[in-house]
Fold:
Amino acid sequence: MTAALISGKQVAEEIRADIAREVQELAEKGIKPGLAVVLVGEDPGSQVYVRSKEKTSTELGFHSEVYRLDASTSQEELLALVNDLNRRDEIDGILVQLPLPKHIEEKAVIDAIAVEKDVDGFHPVNVGNLVIGDDSLLPCTPAGVIELIKRTGMEMAGKHAVVIGRSNIVGKPVSLLLQRENATVTMCHSRTANMAELSRQADILVVAIGRANFIDASYVKPGAVVIDVGMNRLDNGKLAGDVDFESAKEVAGHITPVPGGVGPMTIVMLMNNTLTAAKRRRGL
Ligand code: GUN
Structure:
């Protein structure tokens, strides 16, 4: 059997069209969602992501501001910018691209972002609300993962989901969102003893470990939905996921490609969060 491809690119385009329609409706009320993106330094990967966020935001008709700051920017200067963006009414969403240079404490910066403008969903209050199950701005990549699983038509309730990776950005929030969908969740990580055995029990397998082509068919239950969050740059310049696609697709029921899987969803969920923040701040 060969798995059905889950095209994140196509799903992202559909969601983007929905967002564009809502932005149009808001424009008729004189409202324009505003997104500020802050990049400190010249990390090549971050530069690509920030350009892509700027482009999408502008194309959707958002008010878009991008701050490209020198790598030598002090923590105080960055916090001053964040505080200024917190106060400004035309800004609904603030995203500080990570990683930050070593001399800046990421936690201090994330904590400084106004909770209602935290479109990354990284602020401890938004993380706490996610744990409790209250309304919060959801982290973009995990929200995109859940959306892709929904689009396969699979009912998540009662299914066994295995999440490989326990990062704050992906693994932990994905596991919480899967629980919210009433899946039974197992979390695996670098110290898990019997990972392949656990992984082979997964009806839904989400992989976010940052190791190219690590998960092959021997980790996959026949018919499983496999979501690959990995984005690894190989020596030959090509992008590879954490899942060995050619091997896993022979066993899985549905599988995401890299590129064109989770990646396009992350940006569109960021735009969706900005739209949500813009509406909430105006009581809509
Ligand atoms: N760096 C890698 N992924 C992300 C993300 O989702 N948000 C931010 N702010 N930085 C990142």
